[in-house]
Design brief:
Layout: H1 2-7, H2 12-20, H3 22-53, H4 59-73, H5 77-87, H6 97-123, H7 126-134, H8 139-169, H9 181-192, H10 195-227
Helix pairs in contact: 3-6, 3-8, 3-9, 4-6, 5-6, 6-8, 7-8, 8-10, 9-10
Amino acid sequence: MGSQIVNGPFAWFKWEALFRDWSVFAEGFVGTILLSLLGLALALALGILFGVLGTAQNRLLRAINRVYVEFIQNTPLVIQIFFYYHGLPHLGVMLPVFSVGVLGVGIYHGAYIAEIVRAGIQATPRGQMEAALSQGFSYWGAMRHIILPQAKRLAYPPLTNQAVSLIKNTSVLAMVAGGDLMYHADSWSSNNLYYGPAYIVTGLLYLSICFPLASYARRMERKLEVAL
């Protein structure tokens, strides 16, 4: 029992090594935050665009929405990341691994956000659009000034949940040397075999970002239920 404590997977000297090399984990943590922010910005832009297309009266625009959503949602994120990293260079497109990460999580979660935006727009009373058009708004003007602000309120809780999922999914980039937190933890522990402390600290760092966001989403859901 005593030898397990001294030499086991969580032995104190392994924690000491991790504390000495804390900058490795800090660098990965900052990389994950930057990656998450840029990926979320891209996902929101794509989600709003394709969500609006999904409610358009034009059948072609709705078809474009379905192709994007169905293709992205029904293929694994890992396959998509591998395509951007290994496939695009064969097509003459070379991207830095950080850009691959932003593109990967942004496009992947954009498909889910598009469905949230579409559902939020469809939950808005149809009379709102008709009233806006009767007041001289164009379709896109009514969408921007009347419909989307109302849909945004309904979409907040699921959007926050998507942000949490996006942050956790950045760990997939460790498979292509993405420079994220998981990649730094893997590299550090592979060099010294101190896997126990590395994965505990990595998990806690992800928790420190995701738990506040998930709690915020739950508060928003309760507030929305009361309001409705």
